[in-house]
């Protein structure tokens, strides 16, 4: 379905699509279902050029003649028996509008038609390749109906009869088969070929009636290569039954070939005439006037006969206009040729003897089209004149005609001509992302600086001060840094590496709460160390990464919360300088960049009992600056040294 929608939109000419649209709207207004049938569907499927359009409606098509004329069509003939109208639409579009009918043959060549559905209509046709239909109705547009598998015969390039008695019932089908084989180069399948030969021998053609005889005779003139079809029909012996006085010997072959060359030149410039009217005088060049009149009288499309007779007069009128002063400029001549009826242009270009007109047509074929190569597409792009502009196509035509007339010679003149059509330059884009990116380095530098300052301050703080700060976790006042707990609980696995004994608390450096900006690095969670009163490891390693430092803080907090159960009236922040322990404690190996001072390699060692020192004078507890609520001041008292030694695991940084 989608494939045929694509074919309908791309394989048909613009004039054919416009004609189909007009008929679709007409059928929709009359509540009639409409289908594209016959040769048009066959040609769309096979890839051949679509010469004419055949449509059917489920109803009496003869009642639509007035509506079709209102829609822009011209009725050129009709068939009362088959309830069909022959219509010409603008753009040289031929269309046959019929009714969906079933047919029976009481006698050979004597059909009886009755209204029927579309499927019944397809089953009464001649060949399976023609027994297909495409829906043109809303909701099923492009739907293919192929009850007899005609697509397979099209792929095999074969003609196969729908009915085994097809040639007996309607002998004109034998003539039609020969015409299709001459045009398409197809063959008949084995059974159809056998019945075809039998029909020739038995003389089925004797039952031929006048209407199909005249219809097939006219179709020869409408062929793309009428001489080839005429030769084939004559060779098969059918011309003596159609028009015995008309043979290939009566054709002006040389002029017919020259007409085809002229038609090809016009098609290359976008002019697509219907050559049938121009073909007729050349195909019948050697017929007598009486034979000529007899032949015209047999045609069912009387409007086509009128076109043949009016062609010469219309061509002379067009030649007069093209040779007048109104067509002095090349652009004027181009417009006049493009706007005139295509059939008149074809016959004038073929038959004129005027040197002036011949020169103009020669320029129309060769010289003037080359001007399109001079159109400055690059300059138009630079001036923001692109295809999206509504005036783009119109501007191209104006520019083409100005170049054709020689009014624009230099790039400066072209630019001056295009300047009024150039749209203003768009304002520079405002990008908020670019502004954020410019501020980002400052913010990052600021955060790094805060972390570094906090680390420097931590290195100068005594361990006991950090111990007292850790007791603030029990304070009902909310911590100013809610992330400090989260940042510090992730490196406790290093506590299991070594065990150390300490007699008295030693200074421990507290992690700075200002290190909030540093992203936490998650680590493996291990069981908390045994509870101790105060554990201290004094060392001055290089500042580790913020994540490791935060992990140490979590380990210390966990231990100190347990030790806080011992009744201590008030934490005391000792003086900055305290007595060093008796023996050096194992230095923690730094993972980050080396500090200015040389770090001591990490070794396993046990801290031995140190001589207890006197505590510094008590001091008041200092409230952190980040606390939002004031802390109640408590008189500071000295902290008693623990009587019992408690081992503590020193955190080993990795």
Automatic annotation (TrEMBL):
Basic residues bias (residue ranges): 433-448, 642-654
Keyword Cell cycle carried by entry: no
Biased composition (Pro residues): 421-430, 519-532
Pfam families assigned to the protein according to its UniProt record, in alphabetical order: PolyA_pol (PF01743)
GO-annotated biological processes: tRNA processing
CDD domains linked: NT_ClassII-CCAase
InterPro entries in the cross-refs: NT_sf, PolA_pol_head_dom, tRNA_nt/polyA_polymerase
Known cofactor(s): Mg(2+)
Domain annotation Poly A polymerase head: ranges: 34-160
Biased composition (Low complexity): 505-518, 594-641
GO MF assignments: metal ion binding; nucleotide binding; nucleotidyltransferase activity; tRNA binding
Entry keyword set: Magnesium, Metal-binding, Nucleotide-binding, Nucleotidyltransferase, RNA-binding, Transferase, tRNA processing, tRNA-binding
Stretches with biased composition (Acidic residues): 470-504
Segments of this protein annotated with the region Disordered: 418-554, 594-654
Annotated family: Belongs to the tRNA nucleotidyltransferase/poly(A) polymerase family.
Entries under PANTHER family matching the protein: A-ADDING TRNA NUCLEOTIDYLTRANSFERASE (PTHR47788:SF1), POLYA POLYMERASE (PTHR47788)
Protein name listed in UniProt: Polynucleotide adenylyltransferase region
Native organism taxonomy: Bacteria, Pseudomonadati, Acidobacteriota, Terriglobia, Terriglobales
């Amino acid at each position: 379905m989608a494939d045929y929608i694509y074919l309908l939109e791309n394989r048909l000419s613009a004039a054919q699509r416009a004609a189909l649209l007009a008929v679709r709207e007409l059928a929709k207004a009359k509540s009639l279902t409409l289908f594209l049938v016959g040769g048009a569907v066959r040609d769309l499927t096979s890839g051949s050029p679509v010469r004419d359009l055949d449509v059917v409606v489920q109803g009496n098509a003869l009642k639509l003649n007035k509506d079709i004329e209102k829609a822009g069509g011209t009725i050129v003939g009709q068939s009362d028996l088959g309830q069909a109208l022959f219509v010409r639409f603008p753009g040289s579009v031929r269309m046959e509008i019929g009714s969906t009918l079933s047919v029976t043959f009481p006698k050979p060549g004597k059909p009886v038609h009755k209204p029927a559905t579309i499927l019944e209509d397809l089953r009464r046709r001649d060949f399976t390749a023609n027994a297909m239909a495409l829906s043109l109705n809303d909701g099923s547009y492009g739907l293919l109906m192929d009850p007899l598998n005609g697509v397979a015969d099209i792929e095999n390039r074969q003609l196969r009869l729908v009915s085994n008695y097809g040639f007996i019932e309607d002998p004109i089908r034998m003539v039609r088969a020969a015409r299709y084989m001459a045009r398409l180069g197809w063959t008949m399948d084995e059974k159809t070929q056998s019945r075809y030969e039998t029909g020739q021998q038995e003389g089925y053609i004797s039952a031929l009636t006048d209407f199909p005889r005249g219809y097939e005779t006219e179709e020869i003139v409408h062929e793309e290569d009428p001489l080839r079809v005429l030769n084939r029909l004559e060779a098969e012996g059918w011309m003596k039954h159609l028009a015995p006085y008309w043979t290939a010997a009566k054709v002006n072959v040389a002029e017919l070939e020259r007409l085809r060359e002229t038609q090809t030149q016009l098609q290359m410039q976008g002019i697509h005439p219907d050559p049938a009217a121009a073909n007729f005088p050349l195909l019948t060049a050697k017929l007598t006037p009486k034979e000529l009149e007899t032949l015209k009288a047999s045609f069912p499309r009387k409007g086509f006969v009128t076109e043949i007779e009016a062609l010469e007069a219309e061509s002379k009128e067009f030649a007069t206009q093209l040779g007048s002063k109104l067509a002095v400029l090349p652009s004027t001549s181009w417009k006049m040729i493009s706007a005139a009826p295509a059939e008149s242009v074809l016959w004038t270009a073929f038959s004129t003897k005027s040197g002036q007109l011949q020169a103009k047509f020669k320029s129309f074929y060769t010289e003037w089209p080359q001007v399109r190569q001079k159109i400055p597409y690059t300059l138009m792009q630079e001036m923001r004149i692109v295809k999206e502009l509504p005036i783009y196509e119109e501007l191209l035509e104006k520019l083409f005609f100005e170049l054709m007339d020689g009014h624009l010679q230099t790039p400066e003149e072209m630019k001056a001509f295009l300047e009024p059509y150039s749209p203003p330059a768009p304002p520079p884009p405002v990008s908020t992302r670019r502004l954020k990116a410019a501020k980002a380095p400052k913010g990052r530098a600021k955060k790094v600086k805060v972390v570094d300052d906090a680390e420097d301050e931590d290195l100068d703080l005594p361990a006991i001060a950090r111990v007292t700060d850790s007791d603030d976790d029990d304070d009902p006042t909310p911590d100013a840094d809610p992330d400090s707990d989260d940042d510090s609980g992730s490196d406790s696995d290093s506590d299991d590496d070594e065990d150390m004994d300490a007699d008295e608390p030693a200074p421990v450096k507290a992690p700075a709460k200002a290190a909030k900006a540093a992203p936490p690095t998650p680590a493996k969670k291990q069981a908390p160390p045994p509870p101790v009163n105060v554990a201290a490891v004094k060392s001055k390693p290089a500042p580790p990464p913020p994540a490791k430092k935060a992990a140490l803080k979590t380990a210390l907090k966990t231990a100190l919360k347990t030790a806080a159960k011992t009744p201590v009236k008030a934490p005391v922040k000792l003086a900055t300088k305290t007595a060093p322990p008796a023996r050096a404690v194992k230095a923690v190996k730094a993972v980050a960049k080396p500090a200015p001072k040389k770090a001591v390699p990490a070794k396993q060692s046990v801290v031995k009992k140190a001589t207890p020192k006197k505590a510094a004078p008590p001091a008041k507890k200092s409230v952190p600056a980040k606390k939002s609520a004031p802390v109640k001041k408590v008189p500071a008292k000295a902290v008693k040294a623990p009587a019992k030694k408690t081992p503590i695991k020193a955190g080993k940084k990795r």
